[in-house]
Write a structure and sequence with these properties.
By secondary structure, this protein is of the alpha/beta class. It is built from eight helices and five strands. The protein is globular, with a radius of gyration of 16 Å.
């Protein structure tokens, strides 16, 4: 199955990482389950996917509030990341997006714009041998306002030296598509790679 692109031309491609370049969402969910289970916290799968694109720390804060818990945010972030790293050998790329990366590599510059930490993004891309394809990485610690705010996409465009209206965004979440639209960028929706 191919992923059709909107009419171009585009001077840069901006990619979300998890669920867009890498089929990592099922692995992230397993890591969340293991980390949150240590504090008796529930995180239903439907909510996990609904909150796709949100920063990890924000998710923990909201789960604490919803379930009247006091999980230490930094500790849970670290535990979740550690569990995810253990699962990396199972990671695969999203084939339809990988095809566009191979096709456009060296023709247009690429950036990753992710709500995940730099450690998580570099580990995922490194595990698939794709890290060197990207000219710019904009990760959770690089901006203050998360998607659907356009800040992260605008920062990536600025670092690439490409006007926002000349960028094409690849995204798998509603929040990401909203952020791209708010940044004045065209976007292509990547179907979520959910395991049955």
């Amino acid at each position: 199955m191919s992923l059709p692109l909107p009419p171009g031309p585009f001077a840069a491609y901006l990619f979300d990482c998890d669920g867009t370049i890498v089929d990592s969402m099922p692995l992230h969910y397993l890591a969340w389950q293991r980390a949150l289970g240590e504090w008796g916290c529930e995180f239903p799968e439907e909510l996990f996917y609904a909150w796709g694109g949100r920063p990890t720390a924000d998710i923990i804060v909201d789960l604490n509030e919803q379930q009247d818990l006091a999980m230490p945010v930094a500790v849970v972030v670290e535990r979740r990341e550690s569990y995810y790293q253990e699962l990396l050998p199972q990671l695969a790329a999203v084939p339809e997006v990988l095809a566009h990366i191979h096709d456009a590599h060296r023709r247009v510059p690429f950036a990753v714009v992710s709500g995940s930490t730099r450690a998580s993004v570099t580990a995922s891309l490194g595990a698939l041998g794709l890290l060197d394809r990207f000219d710019v990485l904009v990760c959770a610690d690089d901006y203050t306002r998360a998607k659907p705010d356009p800040e992260a996409f605008l920062l990536a465009a600025e670092q690439l030296g490409v006007p926002p209206e000349s960028c094409l965004v690849f995204e798998d979440t509603d929040l990401g598509i909203q952020a791209a639209t708010a940044a004045g960028m065209a976007s292509v929706r990547v179907p979520q790679q959910r395991t049955p």
